């Protein structure tokens, strides 16, 4: 549980005092270095809500993680560095699916000169933290917006090519154990999007690159292109590029199962026509 090892993992060499400069630098470095991924679910593993497991997976094994792991690790490190951090619940896609989205995302706030939203767990979201206030802003060609809803809710609007178009959240403090029910459900229920697709996302300066089962997605300057991967060789190459190193035999397992799911979806679609 070494903060220095975490900072080495994300290739961050800047200041470490609890200031806005440090917060922005560490947040951006994490987004640049660590891919969003849910592959453990498809390889017979389990994603836990234990900070030591976040460190072992992302820092020691140099893998990526999904929102609970990504934001859980970042907020652990920020607290160790002296930041005043509040974790909270969020609901990605609540604008479309309502309260069923509750607790499917972990978000956090850093209190400095004002309250800043900390979120490296959307995969293709902002590279930098942003103030908790109604506003629109951009990072290069990507445009974002934060609005206040009725009651305690805020709604974050992702850029137009984002895989998650919006995410709602409140400021009510929550800690990791309170997410256990939904964390388990997202890994075990057949209709969970995280079981339906093996997903890896890597943020880039003008957008993102992603694997969604056997579909390669690349978004640059608000234009998104997709194509279906047809060979295990290309799949391995794309996966290695996103993760940062080869997954060996696990890549073949992921390819086999993702190909089977894609074929079943195509067959089911054909039957309905």
Structural class: alpha+beta
Shape: globular
Report the radius of gyration as a whole number of Å.
18 Å
The first-to-last residue Cα distance is 54 Å
Poorly predicted sequence stretches spanning 5 or more consecutive residues: none
Query: What oligomeric state best describes the polypeptide chains here?
Result: single chain
Query: What share of residues are in beta strands?
Result: 25-35%
- Strand element count: 13
Count of DSSP-assigned helices: 9
Overall average residue pLDDT: 97
Listing every helix as H and every strand as E from the N terminus to the C terminus, the arrangement reads HHEHHEHEEEEEEEHHEEEEHH
Report the helical percentage: 25-40%
Largest sheet: 8 strands, antiparallel
Summary keywords:
13 strands; about 35% helix; about 270 residues; globular; about 25% strand
Structure description:
With 273 residues, the chain is α+β, with helices and mostly antiparallel strands. The mean pLDDT is 97. Helix 3 (51-60) crosses helix 4 (67-80) and helix 8 (232-243) packs across helix 9. The protein has helices at 3-9, 20-33, 51-60, 67-80, 94-97, 180-188, 193-196, 232-243, 249-272, and strands at 36-37, 85-92, 105-111, 115-118, 130-131, 135-139, 142-148, 154-157, 166-173, 199-204, 207-212, 215-220, 223-228. Helix content is 36%, strand content 26%.
């Amino acid at each position: 549980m070494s903060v220095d090892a975490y900072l080495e993992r994300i290739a961050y060499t800047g200041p470490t005092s609890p200031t806005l400069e440090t917060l922005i630098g560490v947040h951006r470095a994490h987004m640049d270095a660590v891919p969003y991924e849910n592959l453990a679910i498809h390889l017979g593993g389990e994603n836990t809500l234990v900070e030591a497991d976040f460190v072992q997976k992302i820092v020691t094994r140099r893998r990526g993680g999904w929102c609970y792991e990504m934001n859980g690790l970042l907020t652990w490190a920020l607290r160790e560095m002296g930041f005043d951090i509040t974790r909270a619940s969020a609901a990605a896609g609540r604008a479309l699916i309502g309260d069923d989205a509750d607790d499917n995302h972990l978000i956090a706030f850093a209190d400095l000169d004002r309250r800043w939203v900390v979120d490296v767990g959307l995969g293709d979201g902002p590279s930098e933290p942003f103030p908790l206030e109604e506003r629109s802003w951009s990072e290069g060609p990507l445009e974002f917006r934060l609005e206040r809803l009725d009651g305690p809710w805020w709604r974050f609007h992702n850029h137009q090519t984002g895989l998650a178009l919006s995410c709602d959240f409140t400021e009510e403090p929550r800690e990791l154990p309170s997410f256990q029910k939904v964390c388990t459900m997202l890994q075990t229920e057949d209709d969970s999007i995280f079981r339906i697709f093996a997903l890896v996302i890597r943020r880039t300066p003008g957008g993102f690159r992603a694997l969604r089962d056997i579909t390669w997605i690349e978004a640059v300057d608000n234009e998104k292109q997709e194509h279906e991967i047809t060979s295990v060789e290309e799949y391995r190459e794309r996966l290695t590029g996103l993760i940062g190193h080869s997954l060996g035999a696990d890549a073949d397992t992921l390819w086999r199962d993702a190909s089977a799911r894609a074929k079943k979806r195509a067959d089911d679609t054909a039957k309905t026509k």
